[in-house]
Design brief:
77% helix
Length: 238
């Protein structure tokens, strides 16, 4: 990997972490497609490894806004979703998986943009958890299915609940990947190199998170989901 590629990777990681810190999601949707195009070793597994401490910090930062009532169903869905993702990694090509997940993300974008609201219930929460578990394990992009549940909530609620879900979900995803042999020492080394840029982006987000309104959060979720889907399609084609 060239020095120029590494510098770009650090810049992208910094920006993506700042976005995640303000909006509540977006780190993987911004970083994974771009970094995968720059160099195959940069994504998607390193993003799983360095996002976990970020989401833990965010969940703790706004823990008073966490709504525990629905988290159990969502996390319950992440477990079978993660194992389904492991199965997909074993039987499908990365190109096929990228296109399939991009289709799911684009569907979520269309639903959010239409103004349709997915009410939170045990069924929708579990279903979103399964889809998030699959896409999170395969492509490190697990946010869009969960975003459907929080399109009408304010910034602190979105950030805190998604961070709590991501923290537990990422622990499940990383464990499933490690047990199935889908994490290498190269992934760990890349994650350690990128981590300082992530930490810097998180610190910058602290200055801006209180200035983000609910409509802006909703718009950002739409844009970031669209960016992630298009990026996956580009990666599949390239």
């Amino acid at each position: 990997m060239s020095t120029a590629a590494l510098i770009v990777a650090l810049i992208v990681t910094f920006i993506a972490a700042a976005i995640q810190g303000v909006v509540g999601m977006g780190f993987a949707m911004v970083s994974v497609p771009i970094l995968a195009l720059i160099h195959p070793s940069l994504a998607p597994v390193p993003q799983l490894l360095i996002t976990l401490p970020l989401t833990i910090l965010m969940a703790w930062r706004e823990r008073h806004h966490i709504e525990l009532s629905g988290l159990g169903w969502i996390i319950g869905g992440r477990v079978p979703g993660a194992f389904l993702g492991v199965g997909l990694l074993a039987v499908a090509t990365q190109q096929t998986l990228d296109i399939a997940i991009a289709a799911v993300v684009l569907g979520a974008v269309a639903i959010i943009a239409s103004g349709f609201h997915v009410g939170r219930s045990p069924v929708t929460e579990f279903g979103a958890g399964v889809l998030s578990g699959i896409s999170g394990l395969v492509a490190s992009i697990g946010g869009p299915p969960l975003a459907l549940l929080y399109t009408r909530d304010d910034g602190p609620t979105v950030r805190s609940n998604l961070a709590a879900i991501f923290s537990i979900g990422l622990a499940i995803t990383i464990s499933a990947r490690a047990l199935s042999g889908n994490i290498s020492w190269s992934d760990v080394r890349v994650a350690l190199v990128l981590f300082p840029a992530l930490a810097a982006g998180y610190l910058v987000s602290l200055r801006f998170k209180s200035r983000v309104s609910q409509p802006l959060v909703r718009g950002a979720i739409l844009v970031l989901s669209l960016v992630g889907a298009v990026g996956l399609i580009i990666r599949a084609i390239v």
